[in-house]
Predict the 3D structure of the following.
Amino acid sequence: MRAANILHLGIKEFRSLRHDWMMGVFIVYAFSFAIYTAATAMPETLHKAPIAIVDEDRSQLSARIADAFYPPYFLPPVFIAPSAMDARMDAGVDTFALHIPSMFQRDVLAGRSPALQLNVDATRMSQAFTGSGYIQSIVAGEVNTFLQGHRAAAAPAVDLALRARFNPELNQSWFGAVTEVIGNITMLSIVLTGAALIREREHGTVEHLLAMPVTPFEIMSSKVWAMVLVVLVASSLSLVLVVQGLLSVPIEGSIALFLTGAALHLFATTSLGIFLATIARSMPQFGLLLLLVLLPLEILSGGMTPRESMPELVRFIMLAAPNTHFIMLAQAILFRGAGLAVVWPQLIALALIGASLFLMSLVRFRKTLAAMA
């Protein structure tokens, strides 16, 4: 009867999720619009930044400088009057405003060091930091070329032959889409499982289950397999329809092997979600716990920044987190086409961490049900 109870209780979870339309919208958003946004937004890259130019010199050199700003890094420059510069910057129309003073070319040819004023909207922090360096380099290059009369390229002392593997065009949308899928798998699995348990406690359904001939192991196992299946199906559709289809991101490795690792990872994270739900007494408390747990997991696991750049102690501690091994596995399979011979250590680590979290959550879940009874 144990297997039958787990099966029917899991089907009950599907029915509860079907009636929770808000959670359904959240799942669809996390594996569709959120993936597309993460792949196409690219906030850390200078992309079509608006720039205005106040050209009071009207010389050949100032025209060369203005013509040096072009897509995809900048939008075509807009020439404005000096009086409009501050107003456009305050309104957020321009990210950069370059002021070229009068007699600029004459001072350059005379050997003086004239100054250009660059106003930057620093509220757009990533573009402001990157774009300022771009503009300084562009202006310096055009001035040097103008003085020399030709565009001289100095021969480098060492010739670097660059070959980019797995992403030859260095397209950041490829990285952003897959990374977002990996992160949302962790987030959704914890949120769905924990919310399902808290929702049953708030609606009084747990008391009904306690009156039935079912054990805490059966109740917990049903929630785990049901939510694992939901997230697996959603992530599979996201990889095929959004990542490969809409965004045309190539997947190097086996999706089946990736889903196998994702299932082991979900076994661990759904158990973690139940553990957090037994600690929280309400949905707001569960949300606060998620902030304390999800942020360190996402930031320190190697998904946002390489683990090699972190302190050794942090890297050692984060080996106990399931998504550290899952990110290593997922990046190896989806980015580099790794097979089972490469990722088997991560699979074993996920299985061991998942079993430990499941047992720990089961002990906590039994205590919670005993206190309610």
